[in-house]
Amino acid sequence: MSSINAASGLSQLELSTLSVSLGPDLTFYGLSNEVQNNDNTRLIFSNFENWLKSEEDGVDKLEKEAEYFHSLITAEINHLYDQWYATTYVPKPGQSLADIAKYLNLP
Amino acid sequence: MVDRQTKWLIGAAGLAVTFAGLGLLLGSQFLTPVLTVIFSGAVLAAVVAGIFQTLSDRAATKRATMQIDLQKKLEAIQSMWKIADQQMREHYFPIATAARGLSQIIHLWKKATASPILPIFYWFVRLRIATTVMLKKTTFFILTSYLADS
After folding, report:
1. Do A45 and B117 lie within an 8 Å CB cutoff?
2. If you measure CA to CA, which chain B residue comes closest to A45?
3. Chain A residue nearest residue B90, CA to CA
4. From CA A10, how far away is CA A15, in angstroms rounded?
5. How many CB atoms lie within 10 A of CB B132?
6. Min distance A89 CA to chain B CA atoms (Å)
7. Does A91 have pLDDT greater than 50?
8. pLDDT value, residue A99
9. Which of A44, A94, B68, B107 has the lowest CB atom count within 10 Å?
10. A17-30 burial code (b ≥16 CB/10 A, e <16)
């Protein structure tokens, strides 16, 4: 997260505005409409796109950080569930993107 | 089928007839001490049975009280687990899911050429939203706890 915030064209304030204005029940289609119809969101998306195409190292770092973040939380939760219920409860790290998309009702 | 009360009555009547026969045959000088011993024994047995019954009742009451206390403690622990479980589902699961989605979609995007950027942006925004929601809830919890303590 720190690497993308430090990139040129993306500001912490803009991203925070985006995450506050869009609710937790955001869908892919909702974001797509938002990008098409909202100038502010479209500008942030444009900056994000430019950053993604220009900063290869930053993208790699973001991918690794996100994977590490997921593994860390999953390991912690699994550890707790193992103690509470003597079994793991959350999806394992090997869960596919299709399963996550199905869970979030994505196409 | 003869019930228990009838058996007791028959037994008592038989015992009375037996002692009456012994009294007639041997005289009251022999019968009186025998009856005294039997009566004393019966009273003693009744007292001992009463004491045992009281002790047994007390032990049963104590066991029941301990079981109720244990049940209450268990319910309190289970309630705590449920709250913690709910908090984790509400906050940590979305973060973990979004982080996983972001890393996987970037991985797929790097492998394929001319893939759309919007899915990556979507997972990125979801991760930020999930983090923001947790941050707000955590801050609210800290502030309310601080105010409650002060």
Report:
1. yes
2. B121
3. A24
4. 8
5. 17
6. 11
7. yes
8. 63
9. A94
10. ebbeebeeebebee
